[in-house]
Specification:
Strand content: 5-15%
Number of strands: 2
Radius of gyration: 13 Å
Order of helices and strands: HHEHEH
Structural class: alpha+beta
Number of helices: 4
Length: about 80
Amino acid sequence: MPEAYWASADFTWNSSHFGVEAKMLKDIGFQFEGKKALDIGAGYGRCILSFESLGLDAFGFEPSKPFYDLGIEKFK
């Protein structure tokens, strides 16, 4: 069951998720807009939401049906 794998706080998302890493990339000149990102083992999709919020065209693949279903339920 996916809920047993993560803490309940992990089922939230806000635009500052991965903010430190995004700032580091911006500081060295990385341009997010127009780029693509692929999250393999996407879990319930929080990283995909973070990538999209940075302007990336984000995709994810989650092979576990329970984790995939939870991602659809929690984050659409």
